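We give the entry.
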Amino acid sequence: MLQLSGRALTASALDSELFVDREPELKAIERASRLRFNVYLEGQAGTGKTSLLRRVQARAEQPLAFVSAASIGDFDELLVVLAKALGPAANYVVEVGSGSLLERLRAVTAGARTDTGPTILVDVLDPRLRHELFGRQRDELWELPIRWVVSGRDRLVPPADAFFEMQLRLELLGSNELHEMLERRAATGDEVERGRMLELAGSLPLLLAPASPRALLAAARSVMVSPDPPAALRELRRQRDARVHLSGPGLRVLEALDALGPTYAGDERLLREVGTSRSRVVQLLRELEEDGLVVASRDGRRKLYGASELSLSAPEPAGVR
């Protein structure tokens, strides 16, 4: 069956066949892990941070704990999830222990050697929790025999930046990598699907590059299901051109919708991601809807906004955050 889902890849052998080469980043993280460095991986929504961390997990000689943190909202919840990742002994500490998060993590890792303690992969940790854990409490955290590989969508800021000995940015993919991704996905389809996908691989990467894996797969799906593929490609080109001329706030709205999914203009998460007022977000959403980059639907009396089928693919202009 043709695999065009936008889901993150897992550590399975089957998914490894779909993973497009990120060998420089993989090797950098693996070297850092051997040196017991803490690593921070930054990248826009959809660039493949989760898939990359899963490949790190799959290739590791020793089992690595993986924590999906995108939906974790407070410290207590974070503790529980970290405890589950560290195993049964950690769960016991959560249930019967007392004291601060760091005191309980210290109890969980008691007896572990600094050079052989656990490594935890934490995927998309909320910036507020990241700042609290690796910024305000970094000195105490440094004392623990835990090494961390953490991903996020934004740059680190002081004092959390000093906790990570290595910081990597996951860039958008070029046309060669996008072409390879479509070829790998084409191999999962039947003869007809393979033919259509390989034909698409000759045009779509050149149209989109540089783009995220999520953007490419969304675009491929829209063309594959369209009754008029040439018209679908023309629409993708129009959207691409419109994105190139967006301002920084407009790009941040699209990236936030890509990360959060459909939501309302007043969603506090959306306002926090964009970093501006509700009235400004409403204005930006209206402009993006007019350009066909955002789709709106009614949910009772409120409007629900979502990114168009083509996810964020245009790179950020220099200096835009």
